[in-house]
Amino acid sequence: MKFSKAITQGFGRAFRSLKPIIIIWLISFTTISLIAGPFKSAIISAVGSSFATEMISDGFSIDFWSGLNPVFMASMGGLFKGFILLFVFYIFIGVFLNGGLFDALKTNVCGYQLKDFFKASASNFFSFLIATILVMLMIFFAAGIIIGIPVLIVRAGDGGEKALFKVLGFARIAFILIIPIFLLVIDYSRAWLSASEEKRIFKALGYGFKATFGSFFSSYLFMVLIVAVQAGFLFLVTKAIDFNPTGTGGLFILFLLTQILFIVKLFLRAWRYGGVTTLHFI
User: Fold this and answer.
1) Binning pLDDT at 50, 70 and 90, where does residue 75 land?
2) Residue 231 contacts by C-beta under 8 Å, 6 or more apart in sequence?
3) Are the C-beta atoms of residues 24 and 266 closer than 8 Å to each other?
4) Handedness of CA 189, 193, 196, 201 (dihedral sign)
5) Which residue, of 7, 153, 225, 274, has the greatest Cβ tally within 10 A?
6) What number is the average pLDDT over the span 83-103?
7) How many domains does the chain have?
8) Is the pLDDT of residue 73 over 60?
9) How far apart are CA 204 and CA 114, in angstroms?
10) Structural domain span for residue 239
11) Does residue 76 carry a pLDDT above 50?
12) SS3 letters for 154-223?
């Protein structure tokens, strides 16, 4: 019963949150353009637009990159550092926007106001950020235990390459199976933080574990299904955009296709958050 409500009502919450999803897409698009625009200009200034298109039309070209002039290659170091900073900034923006998205999913109305979205984003930012970092550290710690310790034991016992590969295979499967648990913990924690006036991070994480294991079957099954849908969608995306566009029209179609697919990706994420929010309020 809870599982079916998480699927149907979570989808409904996501659908009624289309306005915040579009806002997230616009901000994400703007952020990505900050690095894509300068990089394109640097490439064109180094080799010329027509030559660059010809060299990379068939995929990655060693001759193209090795033929760039030294001045451009020297500037790539600064561009790379800028990309790293922008990537970190993009993560912070993602955490900020998730605060508003969870509030929209909690409110669950079609006429959700954008001012409420940004207000909730600012209110939830710090608690969401710390909770996310803590859960990421838990994931790294779990990976070290599940994968690292068995590998060390096999190597210490001189079990050979065959035994090592077998242990690695089982360890990877076990690690993949516990990932949905951590996703549930962080989503339940953020749902609690969004619905609560107090922003007590450790209390939220405690609730996240309690809610995850309190209705483990329905929660875990829902998360596995949503993650499988997201993985299948990403696979279809790689197949859909696996072509070389020709001419301005082809590039424009590719641009539209990638943006539509990105919005669908955001909707699937909202569906996941909406399902967990539904389970939180049941």
Assistant:
1) low
2) none
3) yes
4) positive
5) 274
6) 85
7) 1
8) no
9) 26
10) 2-281
11) yes
12) HHHCCCHHHHHHHHHHHHHHHHHHHHHHHHHHHHHHHHHHHHCCCCCHHHHHHHHHHHHHHCHHHHHHHH
